[in-house]
Amino acid sequence: MTTQDDIKKGLAGVVADTTAISKVNPDSNSLLYRGYPVQELAANCSFEEVALLLWTGELPEAADLKEFSEFEAAHRELSPELKAVIDALPTDCHPMDVCRTAVSVLGAQDPASEEDSQEANLTKSKKLFAAMPAVVAYDQRRRRGEEIIPPRADLDYCDNFLYMTFGEVPAPEVKKAFQVSMVLYAEHSFNCSTFTARTIASSLSDLHSAITGAIGALKGPLHGGANEAVMETFDEMGIRKDESEQEAEKRAKEWMDDALAQKKKVMGFGHRVYKNGDSRVPTMQDALTDMIKYFGREEMLGLYNGLAKSMDEAKGIKPNLDYPAGPTYHLMGFDTQTFTPLFVAARMTGWTAHVMEQLADNSLIRPLSDYDGPEERHVEK
Ligand code: ACO
């Protein structure tokens, strides 16, 4: 008989499979991608190098990186058909709906969509990696009524992403912070969206279907949608550009005390696995601080520290990656609703690596449930 102890609600604490892609260690607050600490990768590697590391298991040699970069640059353009599908979507739908739809269309358009060899899946992964920045940039610009900017093959992934979104090659400081965020968001073992992708792949469905499902899972505010929700909190408090850091911090503390008194869940805090702090936060916090200095927006630091200090003092709950990422993207000029699509572009690497790993040693994912509905009964007519 199933006891209450046998039921692992939310699969909390359940080890569902092995993975060689990343190791999350909550005791040491560390995160390794294929053995490398994520902080070292963020400091020393391009996002393209990290993508290849996640897919292949090794950091690339120069020739392999060059070959991939050329492939990526050649696959950035969206087809006229995909642009027409995006254009047909309302400009007030959520950008995550656009990402989900775009990946579905890219799957339908890919002649190798039904091929399931590891080689075919790696190529599909690289194409999705290349196309996502164009989807995200296209959508933000069409919403703003701005002219669409085609990709530039002479720019690397991050420079081109920001160029297509804002029409300018970013300053090196901005590019660096953006690249750090992409690397930190790239992979995090069996989180909700990655497990969704693996579950879909486990039925031997195709890679694009798995990624479409993962995007749906990421959209929720308990997962990727939290980076957007963090900014909504900042907006609710009110961002006052003329406010001093100290005044902003005081106001943020009061806001948090009030929110906690009302038993509100504040997005950007807490984590299912890390209970003493998310390993990615210090690196992302440094990137945020750099952006605050670069844009001269010290009041944002006050709001950021005020909320975090008050939450820590009241409940001992630490920020997760979404907390510093949200305001960083805001300072760069992204619309709040575009934040989670940026997470999609980054996590495309981890998701696709997991789909390939799942398929390399597949077992259909199908847990049991304990029935607690009505006893057997019969139709009376
Ligand atoms: N704000 C206020 N209280 C919180 C928060 C929060 N953000 N997170 C946890 N708590 C409290 C809960 O209210 C609960 O308190 P209680 O025991 O008094 O009822 C306790 O801490 C445990 O919380 P759970 O939700 O049960 O913890 P769980 O491990 O299931 O949840 C989760 C983790 C879903 C991330 C949770 O912390 C949360 O909802 N956070 C906000 C959403 C968020 O930021 N998500 C991003 C995750 S990271 C990422 O996707 C990159």
TrEMBL record:
Pathway: Carbohydrate metabolism; tricarboxylic acid cycle
One of the Pfam families matching this protein, by short name: Citrate_synt
Transmembrane segments: none
Keywords linked to the UniProt accession: Acyltransferase, Transferase, Tricarboxylic acid cycle
GO biological process: carbohydrate metabolic process; tricarboxylic acid cycle
Residues annotated as catalytic: H271, D322
GO molecular function: citrate synthase activity
PROSITE patterns: CITRATE_SYNTHASE (PS00480)
Reactions accelerated catalytically: oxaloacetate + acetyl-CoA + H2O = citrate + CoA + H(+)
Domain of life the protein comes from: Bacteria
Gene Ontology cellular component terms for the protein in this record: cytosol
InterPro entries in alphabetical order: 2-MeCitrate/Citrate_synth_II (IPR011278), Citrate_synth-like_lrg_a-sub (IPR016142), Citrate_synth-like_sm_a-sub (IPR016143), Citrate_synthase (IPR002020), Citrate_synthase_AS (IPR019810), Citrate_synthase_bac-typ (IPR024176), Citrate_synthase_sf (IPR036969)
Family label: Belongs to the citrate synthase family.
Protein known as: Citrate synthase
